[in-house]
Amino acid sequence: MAPAIMMAADKVELSPANTGFMLICSALVMLMTPGLAFFYGGMVRVKSTLNMLMMSFISLGIVTILWTLYGFSMAFGTDSGSLIGWNSDWVGLSGVDKGELWGTYNIPLLVFFVFQLMFAIITPALISGALADRVKFSAWALFIALWATVVYFPVAHWVWGEGGWAFDMGVIDFAGGTAVHINAGAAALGVILVIGKRVGFKRDPMRPHSLPLVMLGAGLLWFGWFGFNAGSWLGNDDGVGSLMFVNTQIATAAAMLAWLVYEKIRHGAFTTLGAASGAVAGLVAITPSGGAVTPIGAICVGAIAGVLCAMAVGLKYKFGYDDSLDVVGVHLVGGVVGSVLIGFFASGKGQSDVAGVFYGKHEWAQLWKQLAGVGGVLAYSLIVSAILALILDKTIGMRVAEDEEVAGIDQAEHAETAYDFSGAGGGSAKAAAPAPVGAGAGKKVDA
Q: Within 13 Å and on the Cβ side, how many CA atoms surround 376?
């Protein structure tokens, strides 16, 4: 998260301004998970709406407890073998004093803890979009707990923890291109290859039931992403956080426009779903790169990601994997694009003096580092996530019964439905309608 999350012994003083700023950023990132729930919830059919909302919301509960008990320690504790961290004082926050500062930064450790917690919450929630309509809620909840423990916590240490192999190699990931988006996208691919396709995939229409809900979710994600990205500089007042804020807006706009242009040329229309998806693709791509590129570079990163992600979402039909809500096409591909393009567009004037192929001495060194980081996280998450899904599928079962999937997973798993139409013009409403004034007794009246 930014270039360093060092725990040096240098004496620093608490900054109330930075502390307040980071608490606001933490709240913004928390809002992204409900935003994601709305985004995904609008993209599914009516019969799966509540399940989709719950698949995101449950992460707020499960990951919060795990992060408190041991996740924070695993991700940011003292390094062991460049693979994992540990600090027994952080287990359950038992040894943390409220006034303890985070390393060489002028914010409390507890503020850093809660900021990073919000990243840990949304990452497994991202995976859920690929599994819409067909996964048991209990199995999903258990998968979140296992996946966070054996995939997210270690990968966060690799990328952002002092001593992690990607961190020490010099892989640039400002706010989560590898640790969040590639991690979640690769996991989504691994799981869907195990659990298989939805009933009726490529045969039945599976259109979004509420595009306004999708747009609302996309707007909340865009809003919260400023905390996600700009907050990852941890409040340091040197202009890099401001650069990241600006680049986040620019890249998102460029990606949305690029996706819409591609969509118009390819399919003949500018769709609201395309606008929302393009915006998210831009947000994903600028997440790792926004502190390293110029605003012009941000336009390039966003536009390239918008087009490539728009192209990638159709691959599921070509290769036959059922990525319900395009998690692979947007988050995996967008994360790869944003991470790799750092090797080309890093200006050397942002978060560090590292320059990409198009700047400075036109060297390729950073590109190879980015490719190593992308490849390592992608392979690990894909393989381990598939193994976890296979174990759960062979033991408790990952999927609901076919008849439950066809009838609707909301009713089967939650005993609820998203919308109640019984009072909106149905027969019961007509039966209860009062007779018009002057109607004779026993006379038939149309309600």
A: 20
Q: What DSSP line would sit under 304-332, residue for residue?
A: HHHHHHHHHTTHHHHHT---TT-HIIIII
| Number of CB atoms found within 10 A of residue 181's CB | 31
Q: What is the pTM of this model?
A: 0.92
Q: Give me the chain's average pLDDT, please.
A: 92
Q: Exposure string (b/e) for 387-426, b if CB count within 10 Å is 16 or more? A: ebbbebbeeeebbbeeeebbebbbebbeeeebeeeeeeee
Q: Flag whether 311 is in a domain.
A: yes
413-429 tens-digit pLDDT: 999 999 987 765 544 44
Phi and psi dihedrals of 101, rounded to 5?
Answer: -90, 160
Tell me if 231 is assigned to some domain: yes
- Give a three-class secondary structure readout of 161-205: CCCCHHHHHCCCCCCCHHHHHHHHHHHHHHHHHHHCCCCCCCCCC
* pLDDT given for residue 58 in this prediction: 98
Q: How confident is the model at residue 436 (pLDDT cuts 50, 70, 90)?
A: very low
108 backbone dihedrals φ, ψ, rounded to 5°: -65, 150
Q: Is residue 442 part of a domain?
A: no
The three-class DSSP label of residue 427 is helix
| CATH number, residue 110 | 1.10.3430.10
Give the count of domains, the chain: 1
Other C-beta atoms lying within 10 Å of the C-beta of residue 246: 15
Q: How many CB atoms lie within 10 A of CB 443?
A: 8
Residue 207 to residue 72: CA distance in whole angstroms = 39
How far apart (Å, rounded) are the C-alpha atoms in residues 133 and 129? 9
Task: Decide: 28 and 224 in contact? Cβ < 8 Å.
Answer: yes
The tokens for 325 are 């809500």
Residue 323, number of CB atoms within 10 A of its CB: 25
Packing angle, helices 109-127 and 16-43, rounded to 10:
10
CA distances to 23, 183, 325, 328, 330 from 313, rounded to whole Å, are: 35, 18, 9, 8, 7
User: Is 424 a member of any domain?
Assistant: no
Domain region containing 241: 16-411
Helix (H) or strand (E) holding 84: strand 84-86
Determine the pLDDT at residue 8: 42
